[in-house]
Write a structure and sequence with these properties.
Number of domains: 2
Cofactor: FAD
Strand order of the largest sheet: 6-3-2-10-22
CATH class of the largest domain: Alpha Beta
Family: Belongs to the ferredoxin--NADP reductase type 2 family.
CATH architecture of the largest domain: 3-Layer(bba) Sandwich
EC number: 1.18.1.2
Number of strands: 23
CATH topology of the largest domain: FAD/NAD(P)-binding domain
Shape: elongated
Number of helices: 8
Bound molecules: flavin-adenine dinucleotide
Strand content: 25-35%
Keywords: FAD, Flavoprotein, NADP, Oxidoreductase
Binding site for FAD: 14, 33, 41, 46, 86, 121, 287, 328
Radius of gyration: 23 Å
Structural class: alpha/beta
Length: 351
Amino acid sequence: MIKTDILIIGAGPTGLFTVFEAGLLKLKTHLIDALPQPGGQCSEIYPKKPIYDIPGFPEILAGQLVDNLMEQIKPFNPGFTLGERAETIEKLEDDTFLVTTNKGTQHNAPVIAIAGGLGSFEPRKPPIPNIQDFEDKGVAYIIRDPEVYRDKRVVIAGGGDSALDWTIFLADVASEVTLVHRRNEFRGALDSVEQVGELSKLGKVNLITEAEVKELEGGDHLTAVGIKHKTKGDIRLETDYFIPLFGLSPKLGPMANWGLEIEKNAIKVDNSYDYQTNIPGIYAIGDVNTYKGKLKLILSGFHEAAIMCQSAYQRIHPDKKYVMKYTTVGGVEGFDGTKKEAKKEVVKAII
Ligand SMILES: Cc1cc2nc3c(=O)[nH]c(=O)nc-3n(C[C@H](O)[C@H](O)[C@H](O)COP(=O)(O)OP(=O)(O)OC[C@H]3O[C@@H](n4cnc5c(N)ncnc54)[C@H](O)[C@@H]3O)c2cc1C
């Protein structure tokens, strides 16, 4: 049985930063994530995409942000249960919680911080009968590493930001890029729509609208797609990759069965105070929660983590009064080891 002070479900940016905030308060943390690596959406969906709205970083790649967070929490030595989904939460007689994963690993803590983001997010797939046969053999729903497509022929499908942005990006990487969309109008940013139009005029992107990919051909790997055009009939296009970018359908998964108040596929929390759910001792922070005015952004998760940890401290140590201090001053006391060594750690952690 793994025992800790705050058990964090979800090792996305919010969960990772919770380790830091808890560590400053000398609270131990352990993270569970269904994915095999930490970082949540940043690692799984867009590790190579730049982010522009992290305070203090004019531009940072999502993967780099995760690396930095991992570096920042190193001094607090959190535990990880990766590649396992938190399946059940049980309240024990001593007022602590028992969380069991789908692989049977048990975790015990007086406080649970749910930082489960979108839950288990699944890509929306186009209705092509044999599409599963080509997954990882030419069909991808998420672009993790654009270098995979260097000098290859790529067919992208979709009409939103993701489809437009990757079409623009891959125009300089792939040997041939085709964007297929079932309407003439796109849902993405106007600037991106214009850029794709320009690239099409320059012959750098093959734009096929009012059309849908309906068939996939190949053996061990995809070799061609069959496209149905509204007026021109059937088009067969040889390609190495087919990437339908129709968005992700969020599924709360097991979290929906934990007796928590759910609204619009998210967990309702008290944002007037500490992001606690309807079950005392269980908090929900980051993309997974909802309240009036909620912004699903990384910086919101960071803020919520800081507030939540203060409340968790009071719950774990009802007899102690914690006075908030800045990391350079107060944080020194929050680390293990001697004061001097701890100070070094703090400086490392906040650089
Ligand atoms: C394409 C794209 C671009 C974006 N760009 C930006 C941007 O520029 N700036 C910005 O601020 N935000 C951006 N976002 C949003 C940002 O990624 C999210 O706000 C952020 O990832 C939320 O972090 P989180 O830790 O709360 O959740 P997530 O990153 O979703 O992490 C949640 C983790 O919980 C895990 N989990 C869920 N349920 C369980 C369970 N039962 N057991 C175990 N693990 C579980 C998941 O596997 C996941 O790893 C973007 C999102 C996308 C999709």
